[in-house]
Design a protein that fits this description.
By secondary structure, the protein is mainly beta. The protein has one domain: Thrombin, subunit H (Beta Barrel). The chain contains one helix and six strands; from the N terminus they run ββαββββ. Strand 1 and strand 2 form a beta hairpin. The longest helix has 11 residues. The C terminus is likely disordered.
């Protein structure tokens, strides 16, 4: 299945994290953008969401991008001012042409919150 370039309408940032510990030993995740890519976002319907949740928890969207080997489930997506945790990554038809991800939209806590995977975004993040 070929990916039509016209479907990739949303510029997103793929982000990875670096985990450090504060002086008190509290873990802190700092996110940084490692790639900006074009993506197709699709909000899942009720039935699709129910099926996806059996695999990966509360799934809100499906995101498709051109194939990359460096996308992992512990990364996240920044789209404008919205953040999405990646819950599942699939190499569509094992053809190395496109990646389809199931994601959950998250609220990002302020800089003082640090133990959750959705802790403060890096200042280098841009959409």
């Amino acid at each position: 299945m070929r990916l039509n370039a016209g479907e990739l309408r949303n510029k997103v940032s793929l982000q990875d994290y670096d985990e450090t510990r504060s002086a008190s030993g509290h873990p802190t995740r700092t996110y940084a953008t490692y790639a900006s890519v074009w993506a197709k976002f699709r909000t899942l319907s009720g039935m699709e969401r129910m099926a996806a949740q059996q695999v990966s928890g509360v799934i809100t969207h499906e995101v498709t991008i051109r194939y990359r080997s460096d996308v992992h489930v512990d990364h996240r997506i920044l789209w404008g001012t919205r953040y999405f945790d990646i819950k599942d990554v699939r190499n569509v038809d094992e053809q190395d042409e496109q990646i389809r991800m199931l994601v959950t939209e998250i609220e990002v806590a302020g800089p003082s919150s640090s133990s959750s995977p959705s802790a403060s975004p890096s200042s280098s993040a841009s959409a």
